[in-house]
Amino acid sequence: MLRNYFKTAIRNIWRNKAYSFINIVGFALGMACTILIMMWVNDELGFDKLNRNRDRIYRIICDWSRHEWEGFDGTPEPLGQKAVEEIPEIEGMFRIASVSREAFHYDDRTFYEDNGIISDPAIFKMLTLPFINGNIETAFNGPDNLIISETLAKKYFGNSNPVGKIISINGELKTVTGVFKDIPYNSHLQFTYMYSFKYLSQISSWGRGWGAFNYVTYIQVKDNSDLQFIGEKLTSIGKHYQSPQVIKGVTFRLQPYSKIYLDAKQYSRSFQRISDSSYVFIFSIIALFVLFIACINFMNLSTARSMNRSLEVGMRKTIGAQRSQLLRQFLVESILLAFIAHIIAMIIVELFLPTFNQIAGKNISTNYLDFPFILSLLGAVILTGVLAGLYPAIYLSGFKPIMVLRKYFTVGPKSILFRKILVVVQFSLSIILIISTFIISKQLNYVSNMKLGFDKDNVLYIPMEENIPAKYDVLKSNLLNDPSILAVTAQQYNFIEITYRNAGFKWEGMNPSRERQLDLIYSGIDYDYFETLKIPLVAGRNFSKEISADVGGAIILNEAAIKDMGLKDPVGKWFDFGDGTHVIIIGIAKDVHIRTLKEEIEPRVFYFADLSEATEGITLIKIDGSQTKRTIDHIKNVWENINSITPFEYNFLNEAYDNLYKSEIRTREIFNYFTFLAVVISTLGLFGLASFSAEKRIKEVGIRKVMGASVVEILYLLVKDFSKWIVLANLFAWPVAYVFGKKLLENYAYKTTIGLEVYLISGIFALFIAIVTVGYKSFRAAVSNPVKALRYE
To answer: Is residue 111 exposed (0-12), middle (13-18) or buried (19+ Cβ within 10 Å)?
Structure first.
């Protein structure tokens, strides 16, 4: 019997090639979209699952409601060690501090490496990260010790053991004392080399006190530990050691290691790969939308052919076929179509997967030898086949043979209404996707074109590498010899990627009853900084070479800092960084968006920095945009005269800011692709319903033409019925899309407005697609020969 079902199903598919082609293509596109999205979702959910200790490892995060910290991952450097010493439930800890991009040089190989960290030896034990070469007990003993990944070892030393070899980093000699196995792709922590905290002690003691939340701390706890109690104990430790932020309200809590990757925060670090759980939810919904749209297509196209198959059902029932047998027959046909569609869908997936990986920034692959993967595909075939075919099977198998064979069979109004409801649902989902795509594009255009408050055009920057800090004055002088270079300045740290902050300050005019701690971002700069970036001063003056007291004795604050401090007439007042030394506020800089527009402008302090000893930073160069290539060649020559080993590298400031929105750009591109496919699939479904309507009303059209109706009148008659359903789909889609759009914009402190034009454009676009689709089929019906329709009347 089953063989007969398949045989009949194949015969029906082959007999109705056009119908089968439309049905299979729509099904295949929907399944391909769903498979790609679910592979992406599965990859997102698979992060940090390989670590055997993951259920007992937590990251310490903190909240500070008054300062709008929520889940901030920064902690004071001493907290982790004190936690191990004073909380018995904690078995171990490691801390991580980021390292800026550095220039590695060994023999004739010189490259920039930008995945470095400073950490503790326990990172290898807690993360079960294998140590390939070297002794983990001694690898972290010295400040000049370097531990590198397996890939980095092969890159510089080939197949030889690199332990004990000397490598130059930014002109300083480091000894390789260990090699660790490469970090897995699906780990939120990503680094290729590391130093010990002894290295940090060698370069600086700044920012290592209880008031500097610059370090990420992970702990490993005993089984069945009370996590809330540990969080409270961590907070009490902070209070005991007089952390200014904790005294003023910061509280610590624990975040499970396995949940870090999808808990995207604006505080993400350079050594972390971070995503957002909301995207997993959104794309899962999109996958369901697209699959549901494809299933609706199948229902509509199947029931549109109901009149053609009514005689078949009548004959089968007359010769003794039971309804259950017909039900199984139609379900087998549906599953067979789903199977064929799945094969085509997997071909589409394989062809599109490289492009999808490039768009999504992933490394997803299909493994057809993986039994769970094969099982899930077979399950999907059966599930989608049954879901899509169940209603048509019930509907078709329910025809009464006496009515069909006497040609009294008509399609009931309830059945027509149900199919129209399906079209409304289908187009509502498509319109939601169209509106969401518009909103994402509008937001990205908004952040791209929003005035940041400073000039980032025609500004490029080069790193402060090797000899550059010690010869910065020579570099600056030589660069300015070229008339196409308009200005040169510098800043400690790459302010686009790294933020250093501290709290616990005092100042003249401070409210003695103030409870909330002032938290400042540090910006060490050179002369000409504000002029180069065209950041205006709203009060006071700039740093001056003519005033020696400005070096170490003067600061400039931004407007956000002054507002937070509650100061009036701040210029000339003293400011204390917490060490008892007073510096003078000499100017107020206008608030500008130095960081991403996902964040509000934060209080910032500018001070003159001695760049001769800088270990990290950037030189900013304002150039004449009409002579870019020649100017870059000049900068390269100056660089090579000072740095003969370190490779020359430059970046444009405006491009660096565009890179801040990589994930959003990827999201928009994914939305664009899947929205387009959803619209295509919906159009196929509408085509099916138009076919059904035209087939049902073919005699009516014939009579109207005989009675003198024009083609335009008949076309209007057939199209207007569908148009009102698309309008209704808009009314259902708009409120849902509004909520969806608000969710998409939640991550931005500065966001575009969702105007009525977004909904109108999306609605008109959907209506246009519907009119074109239905109009094509209706036009063919309107121009057909009425004699053929009325021949047997």
So the answer is: middle
Name the residue type at position 424: V
Residue 103 CA to residue 101 CA, distance in Å, equals: 7
Cα dist. 78→143, 178, 209, 678, 715 in Å? 18, 25, 7, 53, 78
Pairing of strands 116-119, 193-195: parallel
Backbone φ, ψ for residue 15 (5° rounding): -65, -35
- The residue-averaged pLDDT of 353-375 equals 81
Among candidate residues 189, 195, 150, the one with its CA nearest the CA of residue 169: 195
Task: Report the candidate in 256, 136, 111 with the shortest Cα–Cα distance to residue 192.
Answer: 111
pLDDT at 316 over 70: no
Distance (Å, whole) CA 21 – CA 26:
8
Q: What is the DSSP letter of 750?
A: S
Calculate Rg over the CA atoms of the chain: 34
Residues contacting 566, CB < 8 A, separation 6+: 511, 514
Q: CB neighbours (10 Å) of residue 402?
A: 12
Angle at 222 between CA 219 and CA 223, to 5 degrees: 125
d(CA 233, CA 246): 12
CA distance 670 to 33: 10
CA distance 140 to 314: 83
Phi, psi of 131 (to 5 degrees): -95, 115
10 contact partners, CB below 8 Å, separation of at least 6: 336
Inter-residue contact 81 to 162 (CB < 8 Å): no
- How much helix, strand and coil, in percent to the nearest 5, is found in the chain? 50, 15, 30
* 576-581 contacts, C-beta under 8 A, 24 or more apart: 576/505, 576/506, 576/507, 577/502, 577/505, 578/211, 578/502, 578/504, 578/505, 578/506
Q: Rounded to 5 degrees, what angle do the CA atoms 218, 223, 227 make?
A: 55
- Model pLDDT, residue 792: 43
Of 111, 97, 80, which is closest to residue 203 (Cα–Cα)? 97
- Tokens representing 453 are 């408050």
DSSP assignment of 443-496 equals HHHHHHHS--SS--TTEEEEE--TTTTTTHHHHHHHHTTSTTEEEEEEEES-TT
Closest CA to 220 of 130, 129, 125: 125
Q: Say which DSSP state 255 is in.
A: E
Task: Say which amino acid occupies 664.
Answer: E
pLDDT at 733: 87
3-state secondary structure of 556: strand
pLDDT tens readout for residues 750-774 = 788 888 888 888 888 877 877 777 7
pLDDT per residue as tens digits for the range 206-250: 567 888 888 999 999 998 889 999 999 999 999 999 888 888 788
Give CA 729 to chain center in angstroms. Answer: 30
Q: Binning pLDDT at 50, 70 and 90, where does residue 408 land?
A: very low
DSSP state of 501: E
Phi, psi of 172 (to 5 degrees): -105, 140
Nearest Cα residue to 99 out of 122, 115, 112, 77: 115
| Block residue for tokens 């009409």 | 626
- Cα 125–Cα 217–Cα 258 angle in degrees, nearest 5: 70
pLDDT in tens, 491-530: 987 766 666 777 778 899 888 888 777 888 888 899 899 9
The rounded distance, in Å, linking the Cα atoms of 266 and 279 is: 15
Residue count of the chain: 793
Residue appearing with tokens 């000409």: 528
The DSSP code for 187 is -
In 3-state terms, what secondary structure has residue 583?
A: strand
| Per-residue tokens: 586 | 């000499």
Return the residue matching tokens 């002088």: 477
Phi, psi of 715 (to 5 degrees): -60, -45
The closest of 196, 204, 190, 197 to 178, measured between CA atoms, is 196
Task: Tell me which residue has tokens 């950037």.
Answer: 618
At a CB cut-off of 8 Å and minimum separation 6, what does 631 contact?
482, 484, 485, 623, 624
